[in-house]
Design brief:
Helices cover 41% and strands 16% of the residues. It is of the alpha/beta class. Helix 3 runs parallel beside helix 11, helix 6 runs parallel beside helix 7 and helix 12 runs parallel beside helix 14. It is globular and about 60 Å long. The N and C termini lie far apart (54 Å). The structure holds 4'-deoxy-4'-aminopyridoxal-5'-phosphate. The site of 4'-deoxy-4'-aminopyridoxal-5'-phosphate has 14 residues, from helix 4.
């Protein structure tokens, strides 16, 4: 077998997907973007219902103005790492504002959310330590484990009993264990049982890192995430987040409830060995953060859309990844063909969503993920529901009757 033979499986899957649809369902080319919720795909205007733009801030007038002003005054990029020439006042100010919003002593900004998890997980747990991670964790958490020299132990998805059994086996070493979970899992839209996990971590003297990538901006009085909304900010040790979803930019952060977390800057390779985010991104993100902190109006809109979509989708007879409403709704199917047929129907109706198939999905399911935004209008959501109803009538007329 030669070097490139290993790509044969991907090539077959790629051509099967390409042949079965006029527009590629994976890495779909967006020709022109018009707003947070609309784009032109394959020459046609579509509603974007497959982004992570939960609050619609990519087109917020003040965020855009801040980015433009930063480019005019500070240029397009930093051309250096935070450890060298890329440590601008804006990076430090954003870190301070995030830390003070949480009332925690440490916040470190990374160049992406991927790097924030990679950098935090790999630097917090080293030789002789333990990482207990949810089996359905995002790739960057798995990759952080690979980069660290700690022993990685996976526990069953959202199963606190399974976590406890594994932690109990560590005995005294539980104090060297870092539990890593996401608060909202974006593939199925389900939430981690954070209260139970916190109770277990406290009992065993372990540490807890929560990735709030999909929940920052979305949950909590101040939009700080699920930990805030459950009143757990005094219990969790580290929170990782991203600028690329509710904040509408690109970048990531790791917040620490302990001052020692600041030392990650000195040892975290994904922080040290890469260029820092450009001033425009930092300026727009800082403005977006102010909007998030004052964003109850946007959150109310988003949750109104989520409640409405979940109840309609269930009424139509679709199988949902979870029954508790979330800003993402996963419509789950046993076969890739069924999921792809729905994805295509929605696109034909002028709605872009995400098709997700194995191996990128848990338990081998195929699904269509609909992501909501506060920037969606009520008409957008009604259009999505009507297209879902029409597809159900065409494919399962009895269920839709
Ligand atoms: N964590 C989770 C749970 C994610 O879903 C993602 C992105 N999909 C990331 C981290 C990485 O974020 P970013 O896009 O900022 O690299």
């Amino acid at each position: 077998m030669s070097l490139l033979d290993k790509f044969a499986t991907q090539r077959t899957l790629h051509s099967r997907l390409a042949e079965s649809s006029r527009v590629a369902p994976i890495a779909t080319p967006m020709d022109v973007i018009h707003s947070a919720t609309s784009a032109t795909i394959d020459g046609r205007l579509v509603i974007l219902a497959g982004t992570n733009n939960y609050l619609g801030l990519t087109y917020d007038a003040e965020c855009r103005a801040a980015a433009i002003a930063a480019i005019e005054t500070m240029g397009t990029g930093t051309t250096g790492s935070r450890m060298a020439s890329g440590n601008y006042a804006g990076h430090r100010a954003l870190e301070q504002e995030l830390a003070s919003a949480f009332g925690w002593p440490s916040c470190i900004v990374f160049s992406t959310g991927y790097q924030a998890n990679l950098g935090a997980v790999s630097a917090l747990a080293g030789e002789g330590d333990f990482l207990l991670i949810d089996a359905d964790s995002h790739a960057c958490i798995h990759d952080g484990c690979r980069l660290s020299n700690a022993t990685t132990i996976r526990f069953r998805h959202n199963d606190p009993e399974n976590l406890e059994r594994r932690l109990a086996r560590l005995g005294e070493d539980a104090s060297r264990a870092l539990i890593v979970v996401e608060s909202l899992y974006s593939t199925l839209g389900d939430r981690a049982p954070l209260r139970e996990i916190v109770e277990i971590k406290r009992r065993y003297g372990a540490w807890l890192l929560v990735d709030e990538a999909h929940s920052f901006g979305v949950f909590g009085q101040n939009g700080l995430g699920l930990c805030e909304s459950l009143g757990l900010l005094d219990e969790v040790d580290f929170i990782v987040g991203t600028f690329s979803k509710s904040l509408g930019g690109v970048g990531g952060f790791c917040l620490g409830r302990h001052a020692e977390a600041e030392m990650l800057r000195m040892v975290s390779r994904p922080y040290i060995f890469t260029a820092s985010p450009p001033p425009s991104v930092i300026a727009a993100t800082h403005q977006a953060l102010r909007r998030v902190l004052q964003g109850q109006d946007l959150r109310n809109r988003l949750w109104r859309h989520a409640d409405h979509l979940y109840s309609e989708v269930a009424r139509l007879g679709y199988r949902l990844g979870t029954t508790t409403p979330a800003p993402v709704a996963a419509l789950v199917f046993d076969s890739r063909e069924e999921a792809q047929a729905l994805w295509q129907s929605l696109l034909d109706a002028g709605i872009y969503t995400n098709l997700m198939i194995p191996p990128a999905t848990p338990a081998g399911v195929s699904l269509v993920r609909i992501s909501l935004s506060a920037a969606h209008s009520d008409e957008d959501i009604s259009h999505v529901v009507a297209a879902l109803a029409a597809h159900m009538r065409r494919t399962r007329p009895l269920a839709a009757a």
